[in-house]
Specification:
The structure is a homotetramer of 102-residue chains. By secondary structure, chain A is α+β, with helices and mostly antiparallel strands. Chain A is built from three helices and four strands, in the order E-H-E-E-H-E-H. In chain A, a hairpin with a 2-residue loop joins strand 2 and strand 3.
Chain lengths: 102, 102, 102, 102
């Protein structure tokens, strides 16, 4: 399974891009893949091909409205691991012997 | 105020780096800055100088034990905005007219 | 046209990953897409779908040999612009009125 | 020695940000640190503290003119290695047995 954190924004719409981010998030939310939104991006768990297909769908949504789009994506691909959206945080908390803010 | 998302890992300790991540997170947790841990990184809110000082402290912790360290950091610097750890997510949810998984 | 900068490394092979990077670069070099290698990643120019297909091919090469892979990708998608591997640098140099080290 | 790749852009100035990038690059060029500009960012070599001081100086230049700035930075920190701006590329080329486009 792979975790993908990504963010995608238009660069030609000024500094307030919440409307565009909301559209992208709606695509993620309806994808059926498990995800977590954070203040700097969205982390989605899935198979590589499904994640890249989702990224493409998000890109296509913004492409219709913007002439310049910036996309960042980061992948953590680990064989034999699933449920990593929760287990990575739990593992770090166990090792630290304390809870962190999530 | 600035949001900084960062991750910092040793590259010479094999694929299981939870112990090192736990040490870095403990530094963040004791810093007094507000933060949120997610499955791919940690988002901290603060003034630019305080965030870079925190990043340096985290780096110094790992530097003692590792010969090769990889650091990623991403900053969203916005004048006149504070509480962005919560408000960025709320703003997107309001614009989408629905809640997202966080 | 889109510029994609990416890096892809195994996390379970120790700190010297040049052999794996070399394999990935060979895939890029044989792809027919124009690219530039830099000390921290590789920038490739192409259409969105071709770039994601290339990223997948690079991932598949490492997936055979590694149980944990880290991938970073960053995209600058701009309508009506091609040759951006060269033109972005030239544009900045023109605006600065000087040459930079490349 | 550490390699830092970074990019820093204003988000409230529209899609053409070459003027701002040019100002940042001039700061880098005058810093005395060795660097290479690529189409997606700038890679600088130096000690950790010097690199973070440079990043701060670049941020301060844009902060005067923009209300929202996006910064990305990526660090490869390796003990006992210098000249990595050149040697990382050469090492990959040697391992691949061929030259790549740079």
């Amino acid at each position: 399974m792979t975790l993908m954190e990504f963010s995608i924004i238009p660069l030609d719409k000024g500094a307030s891009m919440g409307t565009y981010v909301a559209r992208v998030l709606s695509v993620v939310d309806e994808s059926g893949l498990d995800y977590r939104l954070n203040p700097m991006g969205t982390v989605v768990e899935g198979e590589w091909d499904d994640l890249l297909e989702l990224l493409t769908r998000c890109y296509r949504v913004l492409e219709k409205e913007s002439d310049r789009i910036s996309v960042q994506a980061k992948f953590d691909c680990r064989k034999g691991v699933s449920g990593a959206l929760e287990s990575k945080i739990l593992s770090v908390e166990t090792k630290a012997g304390r809870s962190f803010k999530t």
